[in-house]
Specification:
Chain lengths: 409, 175
């Protein structure tokens, strides 16, 4: 069976019966989604009836009519509104700006912050990335103060995140008192030692699965114990084995969050990013979700692309935001990112929630378009969505998503 | 009265390393054949040959012949082909709906959205704001100076000093 999954002996689809949708086999059920993120979980028999054309007397008719899956009773205005809200027609600009502080001087930091504030968008997030806070402290201190002030002047909400491997508790406290979210870059190895905390007190974690990372439930308890509010798990490597190991670990980790959802305050950043149903919410999506800046003040389409001249948009000292849209690099990235332009993605039930960043495709396949059927990144993201969406008829799962303010109704 | 013929499943020609399927484009649809071929890319090399309007030959060769046999490849291709037919049938019959929705969404965007107001660029800061930035930078510079001073203080015995620096200090001290 291909990655899209296929139906055994599928019936003929009757013209005019079902509205635009994609399907995916999840265990013994068939998940159908439309391109705006509405969904239904059906049995195989129900799906066959749906393809053949439902009669209004069928108990499934009102369910699928309400969710916009019946061509004969289609809400065109509602669909157009959802299309407008979720397509690039509503995109305001990259919301996340990743500042790679290695080798960054004050002057470059100031220019970068100025450039960020020249970008449109209702709110801005500046994520400062460094290994150790000590050698970068003046620049961190400056950006924390300056970006806050620029935010007040531009009357836009500004979110600051400091992602590091290590920092002293004094510096972590300073950042906390200045409203900067601390994110710990961690590597999970083996089972957690519950008595040993993270290198510094942080609200978020970017946790890469290291050698022999085991017992996902215990790791979830460890994150909870040490006060983390959200976690983004990352695979040990982007190959078939890494994707498979990650998916298995993630499944158990998510199971724990769902089962203990009422009590836990830990959120999964994959689910938050993907189920938002907008291309510009997907973590690491070139240009649409983020731009990245290196120490020399060069602008790249994403953190993944940083350092690769092919993805350079120019230097902040000379680049103006409107030029980004005219850049062939940005245009190529946008074209390659859009699921409509990818043969597999355009037929995938996860199309409303998923896409691969072109810079990641470049890394894996050697070009921005990638080769989705053999891409381990595609397998990984599909694995994540399989784990979440196969539980959409589980009340606990829906309650947890509601708690995270993810609307899947 | 015409009798309904049950569609015949194409039989693959198998060799030790390859499977060859001959498909009728009119019956199977060109898009469905292309779609099924594309989906095989994770496990097989696929070569297409023949006439786009008539018969197409699909040659499948496993990327890892030890794990997948040609017969299994051919069966998987045919299974995906059937599903591709369903996907393309749904897509084609709904094309007018999707086009209409896209048109309406563009109209909504054009009519309902005011032009975005330009954000304040760095050059457009007021004199007061510029003065505040200068003040902030001077504060950072004094922070850097105090950090550097602390570094000096943290090395009272001059262990971190280079040989030239120690020689210079020795000369100053008249040693």
């Amino acid at each position: 069976m291909s990655r899209l999954t296929s139906l055994e002996k599928p019936p003929k689809a009757r013209a005019g019966a079902c509205a635009p949708h994609q399907y995916r086999i999840l265990g013994r059920r068939v998940l159908i989604t439309d391109e705006h993120g509405r969904w239904a979980l059906l049995t195989r028999k129900e799906y066959d009836r749906f393809l053949a054309g439902l009669k209004p007397s069928d108990p499934l008719w009102p369910v699928l009519q309400a969710r916009g899956f019946l061509a004969g009773a289609f809400d065109f205005d509602g669909a157009a509104r959802r299309q407008f809200e979720r397509s690039l027609l509503s995109w305001k600009g990259p919301g996340a700006h990743v500042l790679l502080l290695e080798g960054m001087e004050l002057d470059a930091a100031r220019r970068i912050v100025d450039f960020v504030f020249a970008c449109p968008g209702p709110q801005l997030t500046l994520e400062l990335v460094f290994d150790d806070a000590a050698p970068r402290w003046p620049v961190i201190w400056f950006i924390a103060q300056y970006a806050r002030r620029r935010g007040e002047w531009s009357r836009r909400p500004v979110f600051l995140i400091a992602r590091a491997r290590t920092m002293t508790s004094g510096r972590a406290d300073f950042l906390r008192s200045h409203g900067v979210t601390r994110c710990a870059a961690l590597e999970l190895a083996g089972k957690p030692d519950m008595g040993k905390g993270p290198p510094f007190r942080a609200q978020r974690a970017r946790a890469r699965l290291g050698a022999g990372a085991a017992d996902p439930r215990a790791w979830a308890r460890w994150f909870e114990k040490w006060g983390f509010e959200s976690v983004r798990l990352l695979p040990s490597g982007l190959d078939e084995k890494g994707a498979a190991e990650f998916t298995a670990f993630y499944a158990e980790f998510l199971d724990h969050l769902i089962e203990d959802g009422e009590r836990l305050n830990l959120r999964d950043e994959w689910a938050l990013g993907m189920l938002g149903g907008r291309l510009w919410n997907l973590p690491g999506m070139d240009v649409l979700e983020q731009l990245a800046y290196d120490g020399a003040g060069r602008v790249f389409t994403s953190e993944e692309a940083a350092g690769n001249e092919e993805f350079s948009l120019g230097a902040v000292s000379r680049l103006h935001y409107p030029d980004v849209a005219l850049s062939p690099v940005a245009r190529a990235a946008l074209a390659a990112a859009h699921p409509d332009n990818q043969p597999l993605c355009s037929q995938c039930a996860y199309r409303p929630f998923c896409a691969l960043p072109p810079s990641l495709n470049r890394k894996i396949s050697g070009n921005v378009w990638g080769q989705t059927p053999s891409s381990p990144a595609c397998a990984l993201q599909m694995g994540i969505l399989d784990r979440i969406l196969e539980r959409l008829d589980d009340e606990k799962c829906i309650n947890l998503l509601n708690k995270w303010h993810v609307d899947m109704t | 009265m015409k009798s309904k013929k049950k569609p015949v499943k194409p039989a693959p020609k198998l060799s030790a390393s390859e499977a060859l399927l001959t498909l009728d484009v009119k019956r199977d649809g060109l898009e469905a054949v292309f779609g099924a071929a594309y989906l095989m890319m994770d496990k097989a090399y696929v070569s297409l040959s023949g006439d786009r309007a008539g018969k197409i030959g699909v040659l499948l060769r496993a990327k890892d012949p030890r794990s997948v046999k040609p017969k299994a490849l051919a069966e998987e291709f045919l299974s995906d082909l059937e599903s591709q037919k369903v996907r393309w049938a749904v897509a084609k019959t709904n094309l007018p709906i999707r086009e209409y929705i896209a048109e309406q969404a563009v109209l909504l965007a054009n009519g309902a959205l005011p032009a975005p107001a330009p954000e304040a660029a760095a050059e457009e800061l007021t004199a007061e704001q510029r003065a505040e930035i200068e003040k902030l930078i001077s504060e950072v510079e004094s922070e850097i100076k105090s950090m550097n001073d602390k570094k000096v203080a943290a090395d009272p015995k001059g262990i971190k000093a280079s040989w030239e620096e120690r020689q210079e200090q020795g000369n100053k001290a008249g040693l």
